[in-house]
Amino acid sequence: MNRREVLRAAGAIGVGLGLRGNKAFAQSPVKPSKGPVPHRQVKTTKLFKAPALYPNGLAISPEGLWVAQQKVSAAQAALWHEPVPADRKEAAWLVDWQGKLLKTVTTGSRNTSGMAYGDGCVWMGANADMEGFFQVDMTSKLIRHLQIPLGPAGDGGGCHGAQWHEDKLWIVANRLRGILRVDPKTWQPEFMIPITTARWHGIAWDDGAVWMVTGSSDVDRFIEQDGKLVHTTTPGLVKYDAATGRPLETAEFIEGSADPHGLAMYNGKLISCDAGVGPPGFDLTHSPNSGYVFRIDFI
Most buried residue, 5, 62, 208, 291, by CB count within 10 Å? Predict the structure, then answer.
């Protein structure tokens, strides 16, 4: 992540969409922070492997940690010359803090990237086929399939992260390029934080602020150099004030760290997972951290 890029974007992008007649979005633009945004480095420590491949979302519950499964989509399979999975359904796994599998919920989500747990359900954010959010109860019953708000009917775009907090669902909305707060009962949008980075992924709540992963292991993140795959961007974090959308802090992962995708906050520590995605697609050979849930520590 480029710190200058964050600062430039923060001064240029407003918090609200500014829609006339919609009080929920009648909000002031983001004001640039006074002085430079604090910047630190982080490292990662592997905790345990997900029950299966590929983990691309995390959510905290009283019973333990929920991990969202991501499978290759039909479009990605064609692009990367891989077979389409025979079973397209994707799982939400509940594990304890040693990684022991406690429960599996089966969902109709596709190419899941981001999840939340709330109101006794898992909320899976899909990036393929029908997209949107799949609200699924503990018996694997689909309660609702909903498109991300403020998009065309039937196509609200994909998701790269989600967080449940105080009966609200926060969504990293790809099409909007923003972190959208939604009332999960009415499915009405209430507030949006514009994303001020070139890349984005999972989010986590932190005492009035929202942490977001920046950087991902998309295909264009790697280049081949002397027969080796080389990163073209550095994964990182940005912390936004949840009330104003102002960037409060940024961080970058040191070399050799696991690649962050999902994000959660547990006992004051950020937790993430490495989905193991790299060219030509889902590939475990390029990262020794693929498939792991890990802790993020500030240096």
Answer: 291
